[in-house]
Design brief:
This protein has 152 residues and is mainly α. It has 2 domains: 52 residues, AhpD-like (Single alpha-helices involved in coiled-coils or other helix-helix interfaces, Up-down Bundle); 65 residues, AhpD-like (Up-down Bundle). 69% of the residues lie in helices and 0% in strands. It is elongated, with a radius of gyration of 16 Å.
Length: 152
């Protein structure tokens, strides 16, 4: 994956965020105990942060268990070569959801896992993540540009 020489947006804090993002960031901090950099960056534009949180909410209300969701996200992170995301989803899977280190290592290394459902989920999510990621990036950029134009 290519590197970015200078970020378009930098993370904001509750104190420096736009007014409409502040309550969202406060809720995130209350829920997680901290504000992940990705969400702090999305908070530059409240519409983008709201959209991300809405998408996350829909994903959480689906039929996958929390552990299955993290394995899907971990596999997509590996496929998209996002070291930040891979580290985050590995940590969440192991530390908060008690996923075995063997399962996480298998997903990281593209190896089969001993759980039949997880073994079906992670290869599927790796294969579908590249096209999905490109679509999300395009959608995110378009949404951010539109929301930025509207807020001027």
């Amino acid at each position: 994956m290519g590197s970015v020489t200078s970020p378009l947006f930098t993370p904001v804090t509750i104190a420096t965020a736009p007014e409409a993002s502040k309550p969202l960031l406060e809720n995130i901090k209350r829920s997680l105990g901290f504000i992940p950099n990705m969400m702090a960056t999305f908070a530059n534009n409240p519409i983008v942060l709201q959209g991300y949180l809405a998408l996350e909410d829909v994903f959480e209300r689906g039929s996958f268990t929390p552990k299955e969701r993290q394995i899907i996200l971990l596999a997509a992170s590996v496929e998209n070569d996002c070291s930040y995301c891979t580290a985050a989803h590995s940590t969440i899977a192991q530390s908060f959801l008690y996923t075995s280190s063997e399962i996480v290592a298998a997903v990281l290394n593209g190896q089969p896992v001993p759980d039949a459902k997880l073994n079906a989920l992670w290869p599927w999510s790796r294969k579908s993540s590249v096209n999905a990621a490109m679509s999300k990036i395009k959608l995110f950029r378009s949404s951010l540009q539109l929301a930025t134009r509207r807020s001027r």
